[in-house]
Amino acid sequence: MSQIAVPCMLIRGGTSKGAYFLAEDLPVGTGARDAFLLAVMGSPDKRQVDGLGGAHPLTSKVAIVSRSSEPGCDVDFLFAQVGIETASVDTTPNCGNILAGIGPFALARGLVRAEGASTTVRVRTLNTGTIADLAMRTDAGQAGVEGDARIDGVPGTSAPIDISFLGTEGSVCGALLPTGNPVDIIDGVECTLIDNGMPVIVLRAVDVGRTGHETREALQEDTELKQRIERIRLAAGPLMNLGDVARMVVPKIALVARPVAGSIATRSFIPHECHASIGVFAAVTVATAAALPGSPAASVAAMPTGRERAISVEHPTGEFTVKLTVGGTPERPVIERAGLLRTARILMDGQAYVPPHALARSGDEARRAPE
Fold first, then answer.
1. What CA–CA distance (Å, rounded) separates 255 from 160?
2. 8 A C-beta contact, residue 147 and residue 136
3. Reduced to 3 states, what is the DSSP secondary structure of residue 162?
4. Are the beta carbons of 169 and 176 closer than 8 angstroms?
5. What is the C-alpha to C-alpha distance for residues 37 and 20, in angstroms, rounded to an integer?
6. How far is CA 171 from the centre of its chain?
7. What distance, in Å, lies between the first and last C-alpha atoms of the chain?
């Protein structure tokens, strides 16, 4: 039998890279879909040599996109984190980096039309219900590429994509602070269990015997630290309304420390590898934690004041600026809006192939896509 072929784009979104598909092109049924995605990415295999994955969590990601059924939204987006050495497809979390590529993909696939020199696409993330506006330059009906926007973790410059998030608070855990506390003690460590678009456990690096300024490589090899924070993560899962998180990619872990030049220094684990930078929603969530009086993040942050705050979140390869609109009172702040800058670029447009036997194991009906 010939291989199953499905139209696919590879897109760099922010500091990640993923395979983007139209929902209508994928096999029917969750089991068949997930079996297809595992085969496409080449999982489980630590090299992903027989697929499109890049053998790293930041490059083993998938976007599934369709016209939105939600009034006022343009497109729906389902994010999938595909396991590398495990046969897992996790659609629990958001991914703000892959989100950045949804606008260019939607234009290229004809899901939306350009509005002139600038186009805004409203995206609903099906994983959590989060709504985001993606404002981007458009040229000849497609997303612009050339520009002077620069984000740390990506070489060169590109056209900017301004992302504004609406209603991210508690998008996965059901509440900004699932326990109702800005501080919880887990394994003897003060933590903030928080979800402003991404479930994150925020703790001071010094409280686990680190500075928070180590290199990514040093932390990647730090087995003792990884074991300690994994114990914290497993204990935090039920407290964050996530249950047993042993096989889940959330919650993430963020070690925070006093900044060098920005607002707060971070070292992020996703959750078992140290991130070379920091994820979009993780940065938003850490910035939110830093705005909460009495939290571990607030104790080390150099926070700006006022209603509109630009918070520079430092990470191993640079910084990530999050723009927060803060209401409420100084004692009980309310994050009304989060915004940030990303870039994205279409790398390849073609067809992804998987052998038929990859779907035969799913137990669901598989549909052969047009070749």
1. 29
2. no
3. strand
4. yes
5. 11
6. 13
7. 13
Rg (CA), the chain: 20
CA 158 from centroid of its chain's CA atoms: 20
Of 22, 120, 3, nearest to 72 (Cα)? 120
C-alpha 87/C-alpha 249 separation (Å) is 13
Q: Comparing C-alpha atoms, which of 58, 80, 31, 32 is closest to residue 354? A: 32
In the block, residue with structure tokens 């009495």: 294
Instruction: Indicate the pTM of the whole model.
Output: 0.83
CA distance 337 to 282: 15
| Tens of pLDDT, residue by residue, the chain (371 residues) | 699 999 999 999 999 999 999 999 999 999 999 999 999 999 999 999 999 999 999 999 999 999 999 999 999 999 999 999 999 999 999 999 999 999 999 999 999 999 999 999 999 999 999 999 999 999 999 999 999 999 999 999 999 999 999 878 999 999 999 999 999 999 999 999 999 999 999 999 999 999 999 999 999 999 999 999 999 999 999 999 999 999 999 999 999 999 999 999 999 999 999 999 999 999 999 999 999 999 999 999 999 999 999 999 999 999 999 999 999 999 999 999 899 999 999 999 999 999 998 887 655 443 433 33
**121 in helix, strand or coil?**
strand
Under DSSP, is residue 97 helix (H, G, I), strand (E, B) or coil? helix
Within a 13 Å sphere around the CA of 252, how many CA atoms are in the beta-carbon half?
A: 32
Residue with tokens 């930041």: 58
Q: For residue 338, which amino acid is it?
A: A
The answer to whether 253 and 233 are in contact (CB under 8 A) is yes
Residue 273: is it exposed, middle or buried by C-beta count within 10 angstroms (0-12/13-18/19+)?
middle
